[in-house]
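=== RUN LOG ===
request id: a7f3
mode: sequence -> structure
chains: 1
length: 340
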Amino acid sequence: MLKLDSRQSLELGPVPRTAVFSLDDWYVWGGSMVRTADGLCHLFYSRWPKQEGFSAWVTHSEITHALAQHPLGPYTHVDVALPARGLPYWDGHCTHNPNVLYAAGKYYLYYMGNHGDRQPVVGLNWTHRNNQRIGVAVADDPNGPWERGAAPLIDVTPGFADAICCSNPAVAQRPDGGFLMVYKAIGATGPLPFGGPVLHIAARADSPLGPFSKHPTPVFYKEGVHFAAEDPFVWQQDNTFYAIMKDQKGYFANTGRSLILFVSPDGLTWDLATQPLVTRTEIHWTDGICQAVDALERPQLWLEESQPAVLFCACRPTSEADHTVNVHIPVAKYPFKETT
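=== RESULT ===
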């Protein structure tokens, strides 16, 4: 395994062809993994029916659960962890983009949920998008059952940077025992229905269940850019916070559309790492082929003994592809074996 060194870099290794999870009749997207003491790997991931179209992630996604014997898979679908609860719940129609955390003997599954008219439209259903809120489910075991609150964990704040919606949480435990959350926020400065700008908010709490106090200054913000980045994964290592996130067009690192690395002493103020590039939108397979892809995003890092080991990413091969997958990318020097 590779420790983050003084260069503040994270090097990825080649990907076995077997380290990909897909389902025939479903779009598969972001996945977050936790490993239990018995060695089983529990992958929580988003899926929605292909028959509803790619943009139906916002109306029909559900968070589901798969198992594997090895962090790189292969994974087998087991069950639906967080199904739609129906109205009047705030997450009645959609659960999406999980981030799982083990702390103090329990499992915490953070996610985005929403509700709306669930009508098919051309492009994005803005009613659902603008009803996005953040929740958490709690279980004693990753097999469930999962308990969810009747209200969101993070709701919008009028007049703040998240006045329209808040989504896609990433949570890490702080060295002092508290918790840091960074989430995607959309303000109301820009014209509706998009609104904007798209920013990120850091929040802190003493408990993984909150309440979380929102820091007033947005993070990962680029002056003059309406939508610079999204979907950070955050973790704490050696009393320093790190974040991997999607740079939309190379606004921060001048590396084009890519995943890049940030560092922070406290989770509230962030700087670009000295070696920021984690990966461009491409996959380097163990057979030597480098495959360019349309989308490689929603990074979720699994750490073994507090060290980066496997990066889980949502992948869409081409912009016209009628399928998506979750690809499991080993960090350089992480031991893996080809599976058959």
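=== NOTES ===
The mean pLDDT is 95.
The radius of gyration is 18 Å.
=== END ===
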